[in-house]
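Question (not urgent): is this output format expected?
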Amino acid sequence: MTATILPTRRPDGLSARPRGRRGSPLTPWLFLTPYLLLFTAFVIVPVVFGMWISLHAWDFTLPRRPFVGLDNYAKLFDPSSSTFEPFWTSMRATGIFTVLSVPPLLIIPLGIALIMRANFPGRNLFRAIYFAPYVLGVAVVAVLWRYLLDNNIGLVNYYLGQLGLPDDIAWTTSTPGAWVALVWVTVWWTLGFNAVIYLAALQDIPAELYEAAKVDGASAWSQFIHVTLPGLRPILSFIAVITLIASANMFGQSYLMTQGAPGRETRTAIYQITETGLRGFRMGDASAMSFVLTFVLVILSAIVFIGFRQKREDRA
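Got this back:
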C-alpha cells in the first residue's frame, strides 16, 4: 500500500501549503547582462565618444586634438564657414530623397501584403519573390542597377527604346533621372521587409470583424477603411518611423550609383559626413553633423508618433 501524505493543518484549521521559493532579485539582471554589455559597448560608448569628438578639432592624423567647445556646431549654422553650404546642401538632398521614398514604401508594401494574405496558388512563391531582394547587400543592389541604368549600355534604356520611348536618359548623372533611379532602386530593394511586417499585422486582425462588416453590407473598400486601417494603425506608425530613419540614412545607393552626381545634388547627409570625416580627416566637424542629423530625426520621429497617437485618441 502507498502512504498518503495529508497536508498539515495550522491552528486556525486551514491547510498549510509549502510556499514556492522566490528567486533572487538579481536574477532578471543576470539575464539582461549580455544585452546590456553589448548595448553599452556598441551604442552608449560610441555615442558618448562621438559627442566628445564633436567638441574637438579632431584630426586622427595629428597628435594634438584641441578642445573647441561648440565651435563645430556653430560653424554648421554660420553661412560664412566652409562647412555650412556642403552640409545643408546634403541635408536638402536627404530631405528630397526621404519625401520621395517614404510614401511609396508605406503604400506599395501594404498593397502587396493584402495580396499575400489572400489564398491563391503559388502564394508562397509570390511572397519569396517580393522578399528576395531584401536579402541582398547594398553593394550588390547598387552596382547591379548602376549597370542596368547606364546611359550607353544599360538594359533599361535599351528596352525603353524598343517600346518607342526615350532611350538616352541619364539615370545616374542628371536630375530628375538620378532621383527617380535612387528612389526606384530603394523601393524595389526594401519593400519586402515592410510587406512582411504588414502581413504579420494583417493576420492579427480578428476575422470576426470582417465577418461582421460583411453582414452589415460593407464593401471591400469600406472594410479596408473601417477595419483594416484601424487595426494597422499601431504597426503603421512603427513602419513610418523606421522607414523615415532608413531613408534619411541613405548612403550606399548614392555613393555607388551616382557618386553624388550631378554635382552634389544627390550627395546625402551621411555621404557628406563620411566625406568630411574619413576623407577630409575632420572628425570633429563630421561628428557635429551627425548629431545635428540625429536631432532632426528624433524630432521627426516624435512628430510621427504623436500624430498617430492623436488620431487614435480622436477615434476613441
